[in-house]
Task: inverse folding
C-alpha cells in the first residue's frame, strides 16, 4: 500500500444501500476501536480544553458528520459529570445512520439529530463548539478547504477535529488489531481504507495556515490520531 498521497478509494460504508443490520454491526466495531484505541478521549479532552476556563457557561455543541451519535452520547455524559450545561445537535446525510443515532440517544432531549449535507449547514446551526470525528478524511483535497471554512462560520468559540494519521505503521498495526478484535468485514476493510485517506501533520499544518486569526493546536495522539483544536478566543499559541 503506497501511502505517499491520500487515497481516493471508497469505503464500504459509503454505500447508501448497505443493509441496516450490517451498518449497525459495523458501527459497533468502530465504537469499540474508538473506545479502546483512545479515539473517544481525544475529542472529549479537546472539548474540555475549550470549556474548562468557563465551565459555568451553557454550551451549544454541533457534531458535523455525527454518524451513529456515539460521540455526542459520550460527550454529553462527560460534560454532565463535569457539571457543564449543554445542548447538542448532530448532522449527517443518511437516514439509516440517523435512525441508529436517535435510538442511541433516546431519553436525552437536549440532543437532536438532523439530516443535511454538512457543507450546506446554514446559520440555523450556529454553535459555540463544533466537533468533527473521523469525517474529514472522507473529503477529497479540493473540498476540505470549504469544509473547514464552514466550521469557522458556524462556531463561535472553537472547533475540535479528531482524525487519522496516514502511515504504514498505523496501517499494519490496525490490520493486526482488526484481525484479532473486530468482527465485521466492513469495519476491517473500511478501517484500512480510512487510514489510507488520513493525514500527515504537514498536510494539516498547511490547511491551518489558510485559516488566519485563529489559534491552532495540532497534536499527535495515541493510537495514530491527530487532534486539531481551533480556539477563536486566543490568537497566539
Result:
Amino acid at each position: 500500500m503506497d501511502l505517499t498521497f491520500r487515497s481516493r478509494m471508497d469505503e464500504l460504508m459509503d454505500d447508501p444501500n448497505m443493509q441496516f443490520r450490517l451498518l449497525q454491526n459495523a458501527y459497533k466495531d468502530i465504537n469499540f476501536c474508538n473506545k479502546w484505541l483512545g479515539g473517544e478521549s481525544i475529542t472529549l479532552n479537546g472539548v474540555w480544553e475549550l470549556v474548562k476556563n468557563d465551565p459555568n457557561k451553557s454550551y451549544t455543541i454541533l457534531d458535523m458528520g455525527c454518524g451513529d451519535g456515539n460521540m455526542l452520547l459520550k460527550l454529553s455524559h462527560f460534560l454532565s459529570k463535569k457539571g457543564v450545561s449543554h445542548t447538542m445537535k448532530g448532522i449527517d446525510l443518511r437516514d439509516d445512520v440517523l435512525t441508529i443515532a436517535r435510538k442511541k440517544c433516546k431519553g436525552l432531549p437536549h440532543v437532536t439529530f438532523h439530516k443535511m449535507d454538512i457543507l450546506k449547514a446554514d446559520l440555523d446551526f450556529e454553535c459555540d463548539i463544533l466537533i468533527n470525528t473521523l469525517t474529514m478524511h472522507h473529503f477529497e483535497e479540493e473540498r476540505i478547504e470549504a469544509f473547514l471554512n464552514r466550521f469557522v462560520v458556524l462556531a463561535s468559540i472553537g472547533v475540535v477535529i479528531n482524525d487519522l494519521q496516514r502511515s504504514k505503521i498505523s496501517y499494519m498495526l490496525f490490520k493486526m488489531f482488526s484481525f484479532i478484535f473486530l468482527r465485521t468485514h466492513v469495519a476491517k476493510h473500511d478501517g484500512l481504507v480510512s487510514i489510507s485517506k488520513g493525514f500527515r501533520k504537514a498536510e494539516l499544518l498547511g490547511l491551518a495556515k489558510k485559516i488566519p486569526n485563529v489559534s491552532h493546536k495540532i497534536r499527535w495522539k495515541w493510537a495514530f490520531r491527530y487532534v486539531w483544536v481551533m480556539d477563536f478566543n486566543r490568537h497566539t499559541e
